[in-house]
C-alpha cells in the first residue's frame, strides 16, 4: 500500500471510541466481519430485531459495488478509482476486484474513521503493477480529498468516483449534491460516478429501524428517495438500467430473481 503524507500515524488508534457504535463497524458486522466491538454488535442486533432485512441490504450493496467495478474495468476500460467512504476492508474491496482484472489499476480510498485507517494500512496492499493508497479525510472536505488523491491518481485520465453508502451521512441533500458536483468537476470526460444509498419509500419497516438508529446516539444516516439519489447523476449519462434497487442493477445469470429493497444505486459516465 502506498501511504500519503496526509495519512496519520499510529496515534490514530488512540482516537477509536469503543463506547459509541460506528456505522462502518456495524456494517462490517452485518457483512459477517469481525472488525467491530460489542457496542457495534449490540447496535447491529437491535437494528436487525426491528428489520432483519438490513443484512440483505448490506450484502446486496456490496454485490452491487462488485458488479459496478467489474463493468468499469472490463467494459469501460477504467484503471483509476477514488473510493470515498470506503468503510472497513472486507471481501471484494475495490482494489481487489479491479486489480484482479487489470493489475495496473490505481485506487485511492478515503475515510475518516481511525479503525478503518488502522485496517487499511495493514490490509490494503496493491499489485506490483498498480497502486493502493488511503486518505484520512471527511466526505465534507472534497477539496482536501482531491488534493491528496492527486498524489496517486492522474486526474488527466478517466477516473471512477465511488460513493457507496456515504452520502446518507450528509444531512442536507443539496450539500450532498454539491459535494458530488465538486468531486466530479475535477475528473475529465470519460470518468464515471457510482452511487448507492439507502432509499425511502420502499420499506416502512426499514425506515422505522433507521429512525430508531438515528436517535440512538450513533452518527445519523439519512435515507433518500430514489429521485433524490437519481439527482446525484444530473448532467451525466446513466448506464442502463439507470438508478434502480441495487439487486436489479445488472444481476448475473446465476443470481436469484432480484427483489426490490430499500437500497438504490446507479452508474453514470461524464460526457
How do the helices and strands line up, and which of them pair or pack?
Blueprint: E1 2-3, H1 23-30, H2 38-50, H3 54-74, E2 80-84, H4 94-101, E3 106-111, H5 114-123, E4 131-136, H6 142-149, E5 160-164, H7 173-185, E6 192-198, H8 204-214, H9 226-231, E7 237-238, E8 244-245, E9 263-269
Helix pairs in contact: 1-2, 2-8, 3-4
Count every helix, treating DSSP H or I runs of 4 or more residues as helices. 9
Mean pLDDT score = 89
Q: Can you count the beta strands?
A: 9
Measured by DSSP, the beta-strand proportion falls in 15-25%
From the spread of the alpha carbons, the general shape counts as: globular
Question: What can you tell me about this protein's structure?
Answer:
By secondary structure, the chain is α/β, with parallel strands linked by helices. It has 9 helices and 9 strands. Strands 1, 2, 3, 4, 5, 6, 7, 8 and 9 form a 9-stranded mixed beta sheet that branches. α1 packs across α2, α2 runs antiparallel to α8 and α3 runs parallel beside α4. The longest helix has 21 residues. The protein is globular.
Amino acid at each position: 500500500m502506498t501511504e500519503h503524507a496526509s495519512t496519520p500515524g499510529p496515534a490514530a488508534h488512540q482516537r477509536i471510541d469503543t463506547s459509541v457504535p460506528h456505522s462502518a463497524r456495524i456494517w462490517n458486522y452485518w457483512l459477517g466481519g469481525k472488525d467491530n466491538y460489542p457496542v457495534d454488535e449490540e447496535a447491529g442486533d437491535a437494528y436487525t430485531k426491528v428489520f432483519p432485512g438490513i443484512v440483505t441490504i448490506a450484502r446486496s450493496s456490496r454485490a452491487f459495488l462488485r458488479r459496478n467495478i467489474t463493468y468499469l474495468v472490463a467494459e469501460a476500460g477504467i484503471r483509476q478509482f477514488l473510493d470515498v467512504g470506503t468503510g472497513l476492508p472486507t471481501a471484494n474491496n475495490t482494489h481487489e476486484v479491479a486489480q484482479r482484472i487489470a493489475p495496473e489499476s490505481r485506487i485511492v480510498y478515503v475515510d475518516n474513521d481511525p479503525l478503518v485507517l488502522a485496517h487499511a494500512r495493514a490490509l490494503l496492499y496493491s499489485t506490483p503493477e498498480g497502486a493502493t493508497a488511503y486518505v484520512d479525510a471527511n466526505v465534507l472536505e472534497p477539496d482536501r480529498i482531491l488534493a491528496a488523491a492527486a498524489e496517486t491518481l492522474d486526474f488527466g485520465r478517466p477516473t471512477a468516483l465511488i460513493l457507496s453508502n456515504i452520502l446518507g451521512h450528509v444531512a442536507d441533500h443539496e450539500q450532498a449534491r454539491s459535494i458530488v458536483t465538486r468531486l466530479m468537476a475535477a475528473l475529465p470526460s470519460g470518468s464515471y460516478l457510482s452511487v448507492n444509498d439507502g432509499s425511502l419509500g420502499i420499506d416502512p419497516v426499514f425506515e422505522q429501524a433507521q429512525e430508531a438508529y438515528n436517535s440512538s446516539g450513533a452518527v445519523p444516516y439519512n435515507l433518500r428517495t430514489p429521485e433524490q439519489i437519481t439527482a446525484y447523476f444530473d448532467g451525466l449519462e446513466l448506464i442502463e438500467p439507470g438508478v434502480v434497487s441495487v439487486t436489479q442493477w445488472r444481476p448475473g445469470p446465476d443470481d436469484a430473481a432480484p427483489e426490490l429493497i430499500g437500497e438504490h444505486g446507479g452508474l453514470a459516465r461524464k460526457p
